[in-house]
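Quick start: load a record and inspect it. Here is ABC-type multidrug transport system fused ATPase/permease subunit:
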Amino acid sequence: MTADWLPVASRRETVEAVAALAREHSRRVLLLIGFHLSAAVLAAIGPLLFGTILDEATAGRWTGLGLALAVLCGVVAGQAVVSWLAHRVSYITGEIVFAQLRERVIGGIVALPFRTVHRAPAGDVLARTTNDIDAVSEGVRIGLPEVLVGSLTVIVTTVAAFAIDWRIALAMIVGLPILVLSTRWYIRRSQPSYDEELRSHGVFDTAVLATIAGGTSVRTLGLEAARAEAMAAGAGHVAAAENRTLRLQAVWFPLVQSAYYLPLALVVLWGGWLVIEGVSSLGSVVAIALYVQIVIDPLDDLLYWADQLQLGRSAFARIQGVAGVLRGTTPQAEAPASLDRPAPCTIELSSVCFEYEKGTPALGPVTLQVEAGTTVALVGPSGAGKSTLGLVLSGIEPPSAGVVRIAGRTADGAGGPPRVVVVTQEQHVFAGTLRYNLQLAQSDVSDSAMSDALMTAGTAEWIDDHASALDDEVDGDLSAERRQQLALARVLLAQPEVLVLDEATSAIPRQQAFGLEQRLGELLPQTTILSIVHRLDVMPSMDRILVMDGGLIVGDGRHADLLESNALYAELWNAWHDTDAAGR
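Running the structure step on this input writes:
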């Protein structure tokens, strides 16, 4: 099975998502623009007043200088207050948007088809919720406000400079062609580099996660050097991607710096000559020189964040690729609060086929009908297609061809998908209380119902230990047996329409597992159960047995009939019986 990366939003989808966020927070955005615009205007008044004071003092006109100085101090204080308010609104807005994006990306991953997430590299899933979120977070909370501040400051200051003396102000824009051309050159080349940089983090995270998850196997098989090499290759991929961006910056940054300081030198030289010629005043030259100096830092921030926002844009496109899934999903009905019995549910498969890799069939064609409320066993040699049939039937893997109907409904049909629960030999336990893990199946369930479910699953000693056992914290340290018992207790609470069991009791002692599987059918009489079986001692109690080989159903009937009519089933049963007898 090849790894498929999670979806990435197109440029158009990314722009539309950003515009939607801006509309959603339009009031805050307008307030943000108003504060920053006011701060930029106050910042432009300061040099103008200073230049006026200088001209008046040079001319020997001291009248009113005290008032002018007081106004200048007031303007500086006002600018500080307004800037503080602007940054406060920026950070609050940024935190709100950041929280929204974080929730949406998690919601989007959960809403994606299980097959998509299952096939994606684990590092890609991790990177979307860590590195990408961090990149967007920095851009939203700091980058966008800084770009806004820089843009408004540059615009207001330039307008003020031309209002004072357009001849001197012309020197301010000498560096503009250098800035525009060099930045355009850089952005065209840096965006693909940032895309690759983020993707490389996913590759590296995948290598690290695979090593951690398989730590026992790595040590047992002596694979330390091989896994270290794989992680080093991933780290090298990250370094190579980042170095490509750094080489671009090594060209761009010096050009940007020259565009900053060349105008300042020209303003001083050109303005000084105009003052000597008596065409302009010293105050005008000083005011415009101060404007150039004022513009440098905001312009530097503007270009820096324009660069960083390239990374943020790439990260946002990756986030929107999964967060945008929520817009196209049909809201699912909440889990019922009461333990209502499900309606009887018939399963129909019509010419169903499935391929993990194109051109390599793993299943089918399979045509099958399972009556509502029956318990059906799937048996066959390893690789026969049993688990694949379970995945397709449950909707985790969509069929490559054919149709699956449960209670007359397809997974994407009217009425929404049926309630299908899949229990495999590996079950996840969420960090939290035992009560929390059980309430995942039913949002509103009584303590007595949870206790009954646990007792039925074979954990009587767990809840008999003390009265508040449901409030005990559980985590990933639970044994495999306890995990499977907890998963089966959740099944009893969920009351699914269809239940798919894939070695769901493999870690539970044999006799206990045998009794539990029989009780499931009794306690869930309306549930259609498909059990992928490896312990064949339960075969005589099954309503129906399907024998699979090579992705096809090659036998169908009851235990006694199949022993007589199906050679493969008889072979499997005799092999199990002999092995079981030898183990006693």
